[in-house]
Design a protein that fits this description.
The complex is a heterodimer.
Chain A lengths: L4 E3 L4 H8 L5 E4 L5 H6 L7 E4 L9 E4 L2 E5 L4 H11 L3 H6 L6 H4 L4 H7 L6 H7 L3 E5 L6 E3 L4 E3 L2 E2 L6 E8 L5 E8 L10 E9 L6 E9 L6 E2 L1 H7 L6 H12 L12 H23 L1
Parallel strand pairs in A: 1-3, 2-3
Antiparallel strand pairs in A: 4-5, 5-10, 6-7, 6-10, 8-9, 11-12, 12-13, 13-14
Chain B lengths: L2 E8 L2 E8 L4 H8 L18 E4 L2 E4 L12 E3 L12 H8 L9 H14 L5 H7 L11 H16 L1
Parallel strand pairs in B: 1-5
Antiparallel strand pairs in B: 1-2, 3-4, 3-5
Helix pairs in contact in B: 2-5
Classes of the chains: A alpha+beta, B alpha+beta.
């Protein structure tokens, strides 16, 4: 481990002051990524700022306008909250897939976002629910649509001294369903070979899709949206043929690499299969 | 290297400890408090040998910094039994051969205790899902699953 100092501020103002200091200042929420990265010298730090005692970053609430998730709220809390209150099924599913329960109890959804792994399980779910990242820094804050938040593997658009404060997700309409699936070689505790989150809003009488959002994990340097697939599906009556065409179009957004987890060709096939499956789950949920 | 004075409750006993900012909770428990029941396996959150409870939530102590434990309540495997009397979960593992070499067992004790606290009657699928973060290279898991099912039954009768 590098020799770093540790502070646990109890107000957002104090946290932002610490983060604005010179040197490598690392925010820590659950720590399940950053502590491992520090141990293995993959990231450096002069000061680690523990954000778990900052009340503003622990907010988790919903109202008619949407869901708010403070950046230090654990995956377990997000899973339990969304499983109980409904409306965000894909997020509920994906926050229960990040590592083991022991990891989910500490790891935050905000940290999963800021770690910016292309394979991060919660990100496609947040993207299809049109999450907006609200940031904070000593000089103010920004609102960044989550799709614009990622700059590459492990890279975000956050500037020095700037942190993710919270994620805000608009409330979906009653005729909306979402689902997230990933493929891994075992049943749990692994990194996605590929992942797909789908959200559809369907007119109950005509079965015409009025909104479609599809986001992919592990098939590009950042999480991506399958825009062509979304555009095709919107305005279409959803049936088996429409789902097949949508899945084929979703593959077009995938630019995967071949690595130890799977070949590029295999990952593209997975995107097709997982897109179909998530759309069918959405239809079951709307039925 | 900077030092931090922390106050933490471990197995019901309050400790004031001068820790280094870079120590993990696992190192603090094993090397400073000599609570060596908690094991170090992979040191990266995959194996679960170092599982402890932090404020009642199962956590990999290799991925917690010592100063993060300030003001928190920690439970290790040493804190489960009552004056040397094994808990129903521990009895169930012994009687169902839910262990062989025993290295992973402290982690399974904590993970099972946390699981049954949250969900007293888990299905086999739920047991396998919630214990997926604890690796065992001896048993093949079936006897561990049977042990947890037996433990749930014992606790529901207790």
């Amino acid at each position: 481990m590098p020799n770093f100092d540790y502070e646990a501020p109890t107000s957002l103002a104090d946290a932002l002051e610490l983060l604005s200091r010179p040197g490598e200042i690392r925010p820590l929420a659950g720590g399940t990524d950053i502590i491992d990265q520090l141990k293995n010298n993959r990231r450096n730090a002069d000061l680690v700022v523990d954000l778990k005692r900052v009340p503003e970053l622990l907010a988790l609430d919903s109202n008619g306008s949407g869901l708010r998730i403070g950046s230090a709220v654990s995956c377990t809390e997000v899973h339990n909250f969304t499983a109980k209150n409904g409306g965000f099924d894909a997020l509920s599913e994906s926050s229960e897939l990040v590592g083991s329960i022991h990891i989910q109890n500490r790891a935050s959804v905000g940290g999963n976002v800021c770690n910016a792994a292309p394979s991060a399980d919660t990100i496609p779910s947040l993207l299809i629910h049109e999450a907006v990242a609200h940031t904070a820094s000593a000089s103010g804050g920004r609102e960044i649509p989550l799709i614009d938040f990622f700059a590459g593997p492990g890279q975000t658009v956050l500037e020095k001294g700037e942190i993710l404060k919270e994620l805000q997700l608009p409330a979906p309409s009653a005729n909306t369903a979402s689902a997230y699936l990933r493929f891994i070689p075992r049943n749990e505790m692994d990194i996605a070979v590929a992942g797909v989150g789908s959200l559809i809003e369907v007119d109950p009488s005509s079965k015409v899709v009025t909104k479609a959002r599809i986001a992919l994990a592990s098939v590009a340097p950042t999480p991506v949206r399958a825009y062509a697939a979304e555009e095709f599906l919107e305005g279409t009556v959803i049936d088996e043929a429409a789902i097949d065409k949508t899945a084929d179009l979703a593959v077009g957004a995938a630019v995967p690499i071949t690595d130890v987890r799977g070949s590029a060709e295999y990952r593209k096939e997975l995107i097709k299969v997982l897109t179909k499956r998530t759309l069918n789950i959405c239809l079951e949920r709307l039925a | 290297m900077s030092k931090k004075q922390i106050k933490t409750t471990v197995n019901g006993v309050e400790h004031e400890i001068l820790v280094d900012s870079t120590w993990t909770l696992l190192e603090t428990l094993r090397d400073h408090l000599k609570l060596t029941g908690t094991k170090e396996g992979c040191s990266n959150g995959n194996c679960g040998a170092c599982t402890v409870m932090v404020d009642g939530k199962s956590s990999c102590s290799c991925l917690v910094l010592a100063p993060e434990a300030n003001g928190r309540e920690i439970t290790t495997v040493e804190g489960l039994s009552d004056h040397g009397h094994l808990t129903p979960i521990q009895d169930a593992f012994v009687e169902n051969s839910g262990l062989q070499c025993g290295f992973c067992t402290p982690g399974f004790m904590i993970a099972t205790t946390a699981l049954l606290n949250d969900n007293p009657h888990p299905t086999e699928n739920e047991i396998r899902l919630k214990l997926a973060g604890n690796l065992c290279r001896c048993t093949g898991y079936d006897k561990i699953v049977r042990s947890v099912q037996d433990a749930a039954e014992r606790l529901s009768k207790a």
